[in-house]
Structure formats: C-alpha cells, structure tokens
Design goal:
The complex is a heterotetramer, with 2 copies of chain A (about 375 residues) and 2 copies of chain B (about 290 residues).
Chain A: H1 5-14, E1 22-25, H2 28-38, E2 41-45, E3 58-61, H3 64-74, E4 78-79, E5 82-83, E6 87-91, E7 95-106, E8 111-117, H4 124-130, E9 135-138, H5 148-157, H6 164-175, H7 177-181, E10 183-194, E11 199-201, E12 205-208, H8 217-223, H9 231-238, E13 242-245, E14 250-254, H10 257-269, E15 276-279, H11 286-298, E16 304-311, H12 316-329, E17 336-342, H13 345-354, E18 359-360, H14 363-375
Parallel strand pairs in A: 14-16, 16-17, 17-18
Antiparallel strand pairs in A: 1-6, 2-3, 2-6, 4-5, 7-8, 7-10, 8-9, 10-11, 10-12, 13-15
Helix pairs in contact in A: 2-3, 5-6, 11-12, 12-13
Chain B: E1 10-14, H1 19-31, E2 34-39, E3 47-48, E4 51-54, H2 57-64, E5 68-71, H3 75-87, E6 92-95, H4 102-112, E7 119-122, E8 127-130, E9 134-137, E10 146-153, H5 156-168, E11 173-178, H6 189-198, E12 204-210, H7 215-224, E13 230-236, H8 249-254, H9 260-269, H10 278-285
Parallel strand pairs in B: 1-2, 1-5, 2-4, 5-6, 6-7, 10-11, 10-12, 12-13
Antiparallel strand pairs in B: 3-4, 8-9, 8-11
Chain lengths: ~375, ~290, ~375, ~290
C-alpha cells in the first residue's frame, strides 16, 4: 500500500518526525480556507506516484485566492494515470538546505538499506548516477535496528556531521516505520533544514507491505479508500486480487506471476494486446477465479479472455468449476480460451468440456487462439 | 544422483494437519518420499495419515532424525516456522507458504546466519523434486521424468510448464528446484547452479527467470566463468510494463538492473542461449 | 529499584498483563472502603522484600470489617526491616491452578533467563532444588527477544502445552519489561489460572536497574518516595550513594565495592562492628565524601568513622578536601581515621595533616585504630 | 613479556576530550603507552594534547592502525562505544566507564559474538597495566613494578592495595588486569588466568575476588586441573550481610554459589591458598 504524502506524514508524525502544519482540501474553497488559516502554502496534488512536481501538481499560493485557483487546477488533474482526488495545503518553509533521507529493501542484499545524502531535493536519482559516493549507505541489522555509532558514521560519511544529533534522532524515528508499520520504503526528500535550524520533513513517501496488511488494519481503514486510481485496480484490490491494468483488449488470467507474465508475452507475440495482468495466485479457488473474471469483464474494452492455469496447489477441477460458475453468473458472451494443466487436470478438462468450453493444452496455442477470436470483428 | 534431496532424505511436514499440508503430504508419500513426521502444536503424540505428529520441531527432529522440512503453515506463522526448523538442526528447509511479510523474511535471513548448516528454499516457492525419488513441496510428480537436466526457476507454474514440455520430449530431469518469486528468499539461482555443477548426474541446466532483482545477472556472471553444463535460460515478463514507482530509494540502489533486457543480455554475454518462449527451450537443449 | 507489588502490577498492566482489581489503602478505613467496593479481598502488606506471607503480611477479608481489622494489624508492621507503609486490597480469585513465571539476569551466562514451571506458588525455590527439571528455561537472544517457537517449546517443556496461547502471550508481555523498563528481575508467582480459565497475575515482583534510572524518571517520580525502609538508606539514596545499613557502631567509607567490603572484613577482624557499607565509587569528589559522612553521622549509634580510599580515578587531594569540609560543616567530634593512597596521595595526605587529621598508610592498621578509638568509652 | 598489552600496543582513547579521558590519556602517555588517537564526534581533524582526534572509531582505526581502545565516555554512551570499537576491528577494548545498564551490556555481549577478535575488559574496571611498558585505564603506574606476578582482580581499589603491597615487598608484576565488578562483563578470571598460563614471563598469579556470581568458582575449576603457576586467592566480602532478596528467580538459578565461603572452598579444593587479608598475600607468595 502506497500512502499519499499527507498520509505518510501523519504516520511519520506519529513516530515523532517533525512535519510542517498542513491541511487536506477536497475542494478549491477548502484550499482557500486552509491558506487563510496557514498563511502562504504549497498546494500539492496527492497521488501515490512520483513526478507530480514536473507534472504541474505542486503550486505555491501566497493568498487564499491563489490557493483556490491552484486547487481548482490541480484537483481532478491526471498524473500518470491517477486522477488527483484532493490536495494538501502545507505552510511554506524557509529553506536553508535540503537533505535526502530514505530506506528501502535491497533485494540483492536481502536487507534494508538506509541512505543519506547532503544533496537532497528533486535530482537525487541523477546524483546517485553521477556521484554515487555522495550518498552514504548503511545496512542496519534487522533485529537490532541501526545502532548509534552506525548512524554517527553514516552522518559523518554524508558530510553532515554538524547536524549529527538532529539527523540521528530523525533517522531512528523514520526507521521505526519498519518494525511498527512493515514499511518497505520510507523516504523524506527533502529533509528541510529551515533558516531557524529546525529539521523538518518537506515531503514523505511511505509504502507498507501488503503481505503485512493484516497487522495494520487501522491504516487500511483510514487511508485505503482514498488512494484512487484505475477503477479496475481499485475493484481488484477490494477482491484481494493481484491485478494491473494495461491498455489492450485481451483479458489475461494466470496462476503465478511468472506464468501470467509469460502469457502476456505470448499474447503480445501472437499479435494481441493484453488488457491486464491478473495473477490468481497459488491456492486459487473457484471464488477467486470468478472474482478475477468479474473484474476483467468490467472493462468495456475487453474483447475476450484467456485463462492459463498450471496447477500445483491449485486444482484443475476447482479452476474449471470457477470458470463455469463465473461465466454463467456473469452471463459472459465474449470468447474464452482456457489452458489447464497440472494437479487434477483431467477432472478439470472433463468439467470444462461438459459445459461447452474447449480446454487448450498448450499456452502458445491458447494465446494464438484468443488473438484470432478477438480479431474477428476487427478485420 | 541429484541435488539437495533424494530417497534417503528424512522429511518433517510443518503444519501437517492443515488442508494443504495434509494434501501434499499424501502426494509426497506417493512418490516415495520419506515423510517421517509432522508438527502441529497441541497435537503432539497423535498420528496423521499414519505419520507421527509432534508439538515442536525440536521434538520431531529428536524422535525421527529428520534432516529436511516442508513448511505449509499460514503466512503469519511461516517465518517463525523457518527459524524453528533451523534451530532444530534441519539442513534443508523448504517453505511453500506465500505472503510472508518482507521485513519478517529479512529478519529470518539474518537469523539463518547463525545456522550455516540450514539451507532455505523459498518462501513462496513450489519446492523441489528429484523425479522418481522424492519431493518436498507441490510440484506434481506426473509432469516430471528422471534424467540429467537440472531445472531451476523463480516461477512456480512456469516450472510446471517447462518440466512438462521437457518430459513430453523425453528429456528427464535430475532435480527441479523452484526458488520462489519473493524479493527476499533463500537459495538463489547461483547457489543452485553451483550445486548442479557439482552433481555428476546433471549435464544440462535450464534457468527460468523473471523481471526484478538481479539474481539472474549474478547467475549469468557465474556461468560466464566457465561451466561443464549446457545451459539454457528463459526470462518471463519482457512485455510487462514498468511498475509505477514511488520515491527514489529503489532507483538509487538498483539502477538499470532487473529488466528482462538486462537479464537476457547478461546470459547471452555468458554464452547461454536465451529461449524466446518456453516451447523453444526443448529445441535449444537438443 | 525494587517496586512494591501494586506498583509492579501497575507497570505490568501497562504492558497488557491481566491483573485482579485492587486498591491501595493507607489506613484501615481505606481498606474497609476498598473491600466494600471490591467484595472479598486479600489485604497485602506492600514491602520490597520476599517472605511477607510467612511474616503474616497477607490476610483474607470477606467483609469491610475484616479488611479494617487486617489493615490495622498489617500497616506499620515490620517485615525484614521494612515498616509496612500501606496495604493493597485485591479482589480474591477463584484459583484453578498456580504457575511460576519469571525472568532474571543469569550472571554466569551473561544473559537473561526466562523460567516457567507448572509448580507455581510459595514453594518454587524448594521445587527448584528438588526437581530442577520441572522448571523450563529459555535464554532469549537480547536483541531479538523470545521468538514464538522458543516460547512454544518452553511452554510444552513445562508441561503447559494446553495453555500455550495465553501463556505465550503473557510471557511476551512480561518480557517487554526488559526493553521498556530495563528490568533486571520480573516475576509473576503465581500466574493464576482461574476457574473461569482466565490467566491473571496473582503476585508481581519487578526490579528496575538503577543504572538505567535516567531513562525511567517517571517511575522514580511515581514510586520512588513510597518505598520506605531504613531511614539512612533512604537518605543515602537521595544523595545517590551506594549505602547499606548494618547494625554496628563504626561508620565505614570506601571507594570501590571490593575495598569497602574488605574494610568491613578488617574492622570485624579487629573486633569492631561496622555500622554500614558505603561505597563512594570510582570518581568520587569532595561533595560525595561529604554526603557519605553526613549520612553516616545521622545514625546516633555511630561512635567513629574509618575512611579507606585508594585512588585511581579518585584523587587524594579531592578526597582530603572533602573530608575536611565535611568534618567542619558537620562539626564532627567523633574519632575519624583516614587511610589514603593512590593518585595524588601525597597532596591529599598533606592537606589532611595540615588540618589535623593523621592519615593512615595501611588498611589493617586503620581498622585496628578505629576499633581502638571507638572502644575507649565502652570499656 | 606480558599479556594483552605491551609497548607496541596502539591505543585509541574513546572520549579523549572529556575530563577523565583527558586526564588519564596524559597518565597513559607518561608511562610510554602508544596513544595514537582519540575520538570525539564533531571534533575530528583537531588534536588534543598533541594526539589526533577523530569523529568515529572507523576513521581512527583507518588512520592510525590502532588495535586497542580505552573507553572514558559517560555511561549512557559507553555500550555503544564498545560496539563501535569492535566493529572498527579493535582487538582489545577496555571500558573504564561505570554505571552501564545491565541490559545494555547483555546486548553488547551478544553483539561481540559477531566479532570474535574483539576482547572486552570491563566495563566498570580500572583497566590493565604492564608495569614499565604500557597501560590502558586508570591503574596508577607508581604503585606497580615490573616482575613476574600476574594480578587479576574484580575490584579496582583492592587491586591498587595489593599491587602496592607487592611492589613495596619487591615483588614485581607481569601484567595487572582489573576485570571489573559488574554482573555482566567481558574477560573473566578464567580467561585471564588462561592467558597468564601461556605467558612465559608470568610465574605466579594473584586472584582477587568478591562475593556474587561464580566466576571465582570457574577459575578455581580451571586451576584444579593443574597449572605451572603458583597461585594465591583473596575474596572480599566474607562478612558482608546477605542482600535483601526479592522474588525467587535469582535463587532458582544461583543456588548456593556466590558466597565468600563457596569461593574460598573452591580455591582450597583446587590447592590454591586463600589469603585472610590482603596483607597476607605477600607472605603466601614467598
């Protein structure tokens, strides 16, 4: 779960991180009112994706009228596929300097990595490429967390020794997002040092592990509904599916990310355009298959669906039953190609055949078949 | 011969009384795997499908002399089950469970440093099978066939796909190892290929990778140094769109690695042919 | 800092441990009122020492009149040198079984040890001696804390598998007293399983590391003044001295526990009776010496004082200055023998001589001298 | 010869700019100890009493090649300083600071398992001295004298007492080691006696114990197995009253060990004479 900026800031504030005063506004009038209370503000689009600054999603407003105009422009704007649902009006800071601070999971090291750089702000990725040494790095032991001496070393390595105490304290608070919230990424970029010497989070990004959602139901309840985006993805999330929208017209269901991706590859190779990626996972049951089909059929662009299941834990008979129930419940009329192998595959194929669905044996053939069937009306 | 598992491996099923644990225990036994016990706290002293059940792994290992385990417990308990197996002296821990929080796996990986004898496969993996001999996990025996091809894969279902195609073409497998698709996992491509390299019964190796991470690149580096094995690689996800990224931390550390292109190039550079589709693999091995 | 039962229970309750309803009573009337509210209660003496049950410090009361009578008897009672300042009236439990649970620091292992036994209650020490195997033990890694599987094993080893879930949860809560409160010992004996199946702390003992007092000022503020005992020890604690009252008449000051103890040994060997143990520590300064002398002279039994200082960090000149200032400020008339060696010893001796105090060179001679001087009036 | 420290040992003082650190650095230098650097975060790049100061131990070790450190930082920072020294590769860490919370020391001891090269002396100890050569800590040089007696003690000031008496009697010391009086500490009596056993320059050993714990008993067990060293022991606290105990946990694990009686008996059983007073030690060594 990727939190919006103001949500990430609320969470970090609960860990003791200093944040600027700010208010959420859903309308232009609310933004004007917030500015009246806060003074000059930055009006910031709230979307769970980077690059909003360059997309025009952040505007400075000195007066309530400015704020109203800015919010009017930003709310409803599309930023990388996300329709901006609301803005965050945040008191403008007197910036002395900007620092980069963040951690994420380093897959290669199978560990968390903490990063700190004196060169914070918008261009940190460029800094990473051009002068990687200007980013100090630390792999904290996951049971111990970062130790004081490790943080002191990190701070001096980043050339920020004179800010040792406030930065060390800040990093410890940010790090709490791991044990307390199962954070996968937490970033404060920039950490703002104000002209008065305060150390404040200028922006904040926080991603919580979906696998640990059961431990953080409060977050899901408070924020879950607000992160809008692709409507099919939102619906899929409600139904606990792993689903990503794409812009083609062939619906794709597979079990396992690898098989699902290779089905995408095959459909594209056969000349088709996938409408989505939908992994129904290892132990998928009839209900899950039905859910997946329902979400895919919500999309009016979809002209047909290919299902590719190779069963290990997933049993072919259950998949077959799910497909039939789903097709019938949804009165599905579109072409449907099913490739079914693995555990209980004979039983599964039997069930499909009985209900008038011809099961495929080979994924490549199935991909070609669905492309052929969905191209019929187009030519 | 084979790697990691054979007919003499003594296996405990952790979570044997659960639905999946129960079902797959039967499947493992059917192949001839020596399933010598299972765990289920509170059910110690009973038997399940003829197999003795213990409260703890310590008890199970003490009573049975087991050296391997397969984990089928629900996700909230799986990380703990891995550590329990390692602390009990198990040398091959196969974690089938998917959905373990990544931070828990990071802690588990650190914990395992204290138990260098313990090799972890997974989590979120289909396990491994030495066709005709033994298996831990959920790879269907029916699609496998004894032979000399080592198969190692990050994807569960693609593994079946490929194994099935190989078997149908009469090309048997020495051992099939599903390392799992999670970002933080146990044995890597590289670890498994090193084992195949040392296994005289294995002459060819098929590597099935995925976008993300750089385990495939590391394996390619290893193969580039020279190997007696005839290797073929396949990467799924070439047409997958880039994930919508938030924040810069990920980009700072991974740079350009992790794409299908980067992985395929790494293999080609190492002299390893890359299959366009899974169906092409059989041809490239001939 | 050793907390009283009700204080320990308050702390454990803040960690989520279930405790019976109870009220503190400082007078017999308060106890009667508590009983009127709570129903049948146990009226329990609050002293920071074990063995109060056998000393008559716990009485059951079915009615407010019973409770008044019990409190009247217990408040003010002396238990092992502690005058009972108040009682805790606690709702009586319907006990199904009693379990022992505790942890402490195992010096030999340089680690914390968790212990659990199905044979809880008053006689656990006897159980430990007669059937040590009936106490299950676990050394949790101090960074990780006890892991779930370790606790499951502990619970089964103690033969308490059928209480696995509630006990595992309870142990985790009790263990929090280490990271959250720097506890050195925490004990729930008995853990009561009620006839209704609840798992409740029947008694609680908690000792907090004095070295970590700076991290737990709230505890000191809430509870520090209440733990009464020897008035000199209380006064010494206020002055941050390491002081233990003894029942002799020769005041003893030493720097370092070893030197202080060996001074005790020597005085006793010379036929004297030490009035106290007072270690002024490594870096003792003039002010500390003055404080030590002031506390010792509060005790009217004291007939003379021997000071034994061998300076490493402590400097002889500072010790000498402190002795003189203290003697003068306190108008001390009693015999005073000072043995002073180590860093800056010449300067120190010089200062003492100048002010009319003859410094000793040898500890044994100093011990004999103070015994001789204090025996003068007795013979 | 000597143990643990000699004239070639390269020492960093952690907390060199503090009052105690500063004072004792001078004392160490006076004896000839190679104090090659100090740490004080934020003061890196400056010098203090002619010694270069660094921000971190990593920097200090890199610049100076130091192999030992003495810790004089205040108690709330001392546990961290020990870990910092170990992580920087220091092989002898001497922690003078007293008042470190016991739970922090327990975590430190576990941390040090990851750094087997790092030996910790203390905390809450006077340090160690090889008379005429070098010292780390606060043992006054003046009361020592080069020779062949190894002195190891739990008490700071009693160590001075005994060293002073030995020197006055013309009996020099190879190395004097104050292991410290805290319940959870680094080197034990046993560890130090094993080192003396291996040091050809040491022919006699004096052990000064205290009530509490069972380190003395463990040392006696070691000596009972046979030693080339002539040993004498002294235990302080024979007349100390028993502490007022709360709860049973302590009693369950320690039983009857830890008393002066138990310790003295252990040494007598091992054939090691026990001195009645510190003054008797000289006579027993003759």
């Amino acid at each position: 779960m990727k939190l919006l900026e103001y949500q990430a800031k609320e969470v970090l504030a609960s860990l003791g991180v200093a944040i600027p005063p700010g208010e959420v506004a859903r309308t232009a009038d609310e933004a004007a009112a917030a500015c009246a209370r806060l003074g000059p503000v930055a009006v910031k689009a709230q979307v769970p994706v980077g690059g909003r600054g360059k997309a025009g999603g952040i505007k400075l407003a000195r007066t309530p009228d400015d704020a109203r105009a800015a919010a009017d422009q930003i709310i409803g704007m599309d930023i990388k596929g996300f329709k901006v649902p609301l803005v965050y009006c945040e008191a403008a800071l007197e910036i002395e300097r900007e620092i980069y601070l963040g951690f994420t999971v380093d897959r290669d090291a199978r560990a968390n990595i903490l990063m700190l750089s004196a060169k914070g702000g918008m261009d940190i990725e460029q800094v990473a490429e051009e002068s990687p040494d200007s980013i100090a790095r630390l792999y904290p032991n996951p049971w111990r967390g970062p130790l004081d001496f490790e943080l002191t070393r990190l701070v001096f390595e980043a050339g920020l020794g004179e800010l040792g105490r406030p930065l060390t304290a800040l990093i410890k608070k940010l790090y709490r997002a791991i044990p307390d919230y199962d954070a996968l990424t937490a970033e404060i970029n920039p950490v703002v040092v104000t002209k008065k010497g305060e150390v404040i989070a200028g922006d904040a990004k926080l991603e919580i592990d979906d696998n640990a959602a059961w431990r953080h139901k409060d977050l899901e309840q408070r924020y879950g509904a607000l992160i809008e985006g692709d409507p099919y993805e939102v619906e899929a999330k409600k139904r606990s599916l792993t689903y990503v929208s794409l812009d083609g017209d062939i619906g794709i269901i597979g079990n396992g990310a690898g098989l699902c991706m290779s089905t995408l590859d095959l459909v594209q190779r056969a000349g088709g355009k996938p409408a989505n990626f939908c992994d129904i996972g290892g132990g998928a049951k009839a209900e899950v298959v039905e859910n997946a089909l329902a979400v895919i059929l919500m999309n009016p662009k979809v002209r047909g669906v290919v299902i590719n299941v190779f069963g290990g834990i997933t049993r072919g008979d259950e998949v077959a039953k799910g497909i039939i129930t789903a097709r019938d419940n949804l009165s599905m009329k579109l072409p449907l190609v099913v490739r079914l192998s693995g555990t209980n595959e004979e039983e599964g194929r039997e069930i499909l055949k009985r209900d008038g669905i011809e099961p495929g044996v080979n994924a490549w053939a199935a991909a070609q078949k669905i492309v052929e069937l969905t191209r019929v009306g187009i030519r | 011969m084979s790697i990691l598992i054979d007919g003499s491996t003594r296996v405990i099923v952790q979570g044997i009384t659960g639905r999946e644990g129960s079902f797959h225990t039967e499947q493992m036994k059917e192949l001839g795997t020596k399933v010598v016990g299972g765990t289920s706290p509170g059910k110690g002293g009973t038997t399940h499908a003829g197999i003795p059940v213990f409260n703890t792994m310590a008890d199970a290992v003490k009573a049975t002399g087991a050296n391997a385990s397969g984990i089928f417990v629900p996700a909230p308990f799986a990380a703990d089950a891995i550590m329990e197996a390692a602390a009990a002296g198990i040398t091959l821990i196969v974690c089938i469970t998917e959905g373990i929080p990544i931070q828990e796996m990071i802690r588990v990986k650190d914990f395992l440093r204290g138990y260098p004898q313990a090799r972890l496969l997974g989590a979120n993996c289909p396990g491994l099978i030495t066709p005709g001999e033994a298996k831990i996990g959920i790879i269907p025996q029916r699609i496998t066939r004894p032979g000399s091809i080592g198969l190692v894969s990050r994807s569960g279902t693609l593994t079946y796909e490929v194994a099935s195609a190989l078997s149908a073409a009469g090309m048997g497998q020495s051992t099939i190892v599903g390392i799992g698709g999670d970002p933080v996992l146990g044995l890597t491509f590289r670890d498994v290929i090193e084992m195949f390299e040392k296994d005289p019964a294995t002459t060819q190796v098929v590597l099935i990778g995925e976008i993300g991470g750089s385990d495939e690149e590391h394996a390619a580096e290893l193969l580039a140094r020279g190997t007696r094995l005839k290797a073929v690689a396949f990467i799924s996800g070439r047409t997958a769109p880039e994930g919508k990224r938030m924040g810069h931390a990920g980009a700072i550390i991974s740079g350009n690695r992790g794409t299908a292109k980067s992985k395929e190039e790494a293999f080609r550079k190492a002299g390893v042919p890359v299959a366009e589709t899974t169906d092409d693999i059989v041809g490239l091995l001939r």
